[in-house]
Amino acid sequence: MIKLAEGQVLENYDKLLTYDRQSGWFSSSDVIAVDLELSQFPSSSFQFGFPKGSTIFVGDVLWFQVESDTVFSYPLKSFLDKFELKDKAKISILRKGITKDEVVIRKGFFAKSSEVHSLDIVENSLEERKVSSFYDFYFTALMVIMLLVALYKLIYPLVLKYIVDPQSLFTAEDFSESNALQKFFTLDIIFFILIINLLLALVMMVGIKETGWSKSLQFTIEGKPNELFFYWLVITLLLFVATILKFLFIKFITFVYDLGKKEFSHFFYLLRIVSILLLVLTLIITLVALNSPESMNSVLQYSLYIAFWAYIIGVFFLMLIMMNKVSFNNYHLFAYICTAELVPFLIISKFIIG
Fold this sequence. Notes:
The chain is of the alpha+beta class.
């Protein structure tokens, strides 16, 4: 039995709690929810009691995740200011196996100190966390990318269909003279690279937020939505420049190894692999963010390892195709692939994945 702080209780929400079961793609959660009245008794406070492992939402905004059984008081005025609320707010508590008896929500005037109850929790033991608007930004940015993809499909329908077709990765059409896509600096290729870099920058920001990678880049996932959009565009610009440098690097290596005009076929084949991997990774991130955000860290780490090996396999297929299409010594061709792809990719992967 939870022992709460003494005080004058104005409203007890225990009997108003509702139970529901929320099913997702990766897991399911039990949900306890209630609508809080915020327009009366402005000088009062809420007293909350949440069990360990639960995730707390106010409306659609993630408030915090409970690391241990917690009881704390929160002034009504601070609650209104924090979430920019007016009259009412829905609070939801998600956890597998949660019951109504484990949740306490009351409004009133409570003592400043609280005794430790049987779950060894002291009032106000909750560590304050900032309300993040990151995933509001994520879904807005994703909508922008989808609009750009729709525009691209309208202008270049055949090109888009060819790029995202996984079956064509197993053919040698990229190295065929009949392939209409033979130049890098054309509007259709530049436009597509811009869209892919926007998507890659967005996925990178999710990775920085969820995995804690690179403390020096944490500022890019903090702040208001307009700041996040600015960082997103800056990262996209840097990736766009890096993509051009990558193509020029491949062009230089093909010149060194005297492979002829194969730089674009090489570059475009791997660009298509990256595009398909990004589409799959974005779909996974979106499904997890909507259904099970607390598992994002582990899902993202496994997904990145899978993407790593998928890219390695793609480079292997590129080498097999070039062996059949390029009249070149296989030993020198292997050295070319290692110089142009494997060594740079493994160095970057070591820096990112560790």
